[in-house]
From TrEMBL:
Residues in Fe2OG dioxygenase domain copies: 217-316
Organism this protein belongs to: Sphingomonas psychrotolerans
Matches recorded under SUPFAM superfamilies: HCP-like (SSF81901)
GO molecular function: dioxygenase activity; iron ion binding; L-ascorbic acid binding; oxidoreductase activity, acting on paired donors, with incorporation or reduction of molecular oxygen
Name of the protein in its database record: Proline hydroxylase
SMART domains reported in the protein's UniProt record: P4Hc
Keywords annotated in UniProt: Dioxygenase, Endoplasmic reticulum, Glycoprotein, Iron, Metal-binding, Oxidoreductase, Vitamin C
Required cofactor(s): L-ascorbate
Length: 327
């Protein structure tokens, strides 16, 4: 038998013995094992081995935090700010109170609190003033926002995304196996609800403000890293047959000082040269809801250094960040 409760629980769950696995984690948590409670909370959040139950996960997470789980404290902050990703009402002030408490003994929380303190925000975390952009294409509408993010904010987004990066892949319909993405050769990772700390949440609210949408319409912020030779070939951001279509795209450039990497709109004769902190917003559909093929665009190959980019694809209606997929 495995040597610790978490290993034992995984072994039991792998054999289909879900209930004994949960009982084991609960018993370990009752005995003061914060890691066991954290594991159970993750199962409840993800719907792994047990039915997904966000409210139960929050209760379990609170117990883990109460007995000293530092990472759990930051996860609790994230879920409080977003309202469990639409399951509860967002509570920015409650999240700030939890972050202040965590910052008393955690340098990561302290750094996040300092960054939040440097932002001009409303009581719910939205920007106090909506940044003004410059229209660089009237139809389709493409708007450029200089310095939407500060250098520190860009660095934070990149640091959160760095641990999530994986080579771009898609499922081969013939074999069912993951294969390299046919048009995007970068590494990428999406910042889901459990990692959407208060800084990321505030930036997502800023993105919602400049795009004229609700934050709940945005897919999880995706961080992309392009190394020399990597690119995103010509494509549309809309999804064929999607019931909840992507209507708008926001691209935020997180750094500069690399070669190549321009965002190119060939049908508009428009090239956007990346500059750290700048953003562009463009519509992806026509008034009738069909894809606007004029928004065909590409990320040119990087020739030197590394290009970091954050993308938020915005849907016509609110999405569930726990179950978002291509459709």
């Amino acid at each position: 038998m495995a040597s610790n409760p978490i290993e034992q629980a995984h072994l039991l769950a792998s054999r289909g013995q879900t209930r004994p696995a949960v009982v084991l984690l609960e018993a370990a948590g009752a005995a003061g094992d914060a890691q066991a409670l954290m594991q159970l909370a993750v199962w409840q959040l993800a719907g792994t081995h047990v039915a997904r139950d966000l409210d139960a996960a929050r209760v379990t997470l609170r117990r883990a935090v109460a007995i000293g789980h530092v990472d759990g404290a930051l996860m609790e902050v994230a879920l409080t700010a977003s309202g469990n990703g639409n399951a509860r009402a967002p509570d920015w002030q409650g999240a700030i109170a939890l972050l202040d408490k965590a910052a008393a003994g955690d340098p990561v929380a302290t750094a996040q609190r300092a960054l939040i303190g440097a932002m001009a925000l409303t009581s719910d975390g939205a920007p106090l003033r909506v940044p003004q952009g410059q229209v660089i294409s009237a139809s389709p509408r493409v708007v450029h926002y200089p310095a939407l993010l500060s250098e520190r904010e860009c660095a934070h987004v990149a640091s959160v995304g760095a641990g999530l990066l994986e080579p771009a892949q898609v499922i081969d319909p013939q074999t069912g196996r993951l294969v390299p993405h046919p048009i995007r050769t970068s590494d990428g990772g999406a910042i889901g609800p459990t990692r959407e700390d208060l800084v990321i949440r505030a930036l997502n609210l800023r993105i919602a403000a400049i795009s004229g949408t609700r934050v709940e319409q945005g897919e999880p912020l995706t961080v992309l890293r392009y190394s020399p030779g990597q690119e995103y070939r010509r494509h549309l951001d809309t999804i064929a047959g999607a019931r909840n279509q992507r209507i708008r795209t926001v691209l935020v450039y997180l750094n500069q000082g690399f070669g190549g990497g321009e965002t190119q709109f060939p049908m508009l004769g428009l090239d956007v040269r990346p500059r750290g902190g700048d953003a562009i917003v463009f519509d992806t559909i026509l008034p009738d809801g069909s894809p606007d093929t004029r928004t065909l665009h590409a990320g040119a190959p990087v020739t030197a250094g590394a290009k970091w980019l954050a993308t938020r694809w915005i849907r016509a209606e609110a999405i569930d960040p726990w179950t978002i997929h291509a459709g």
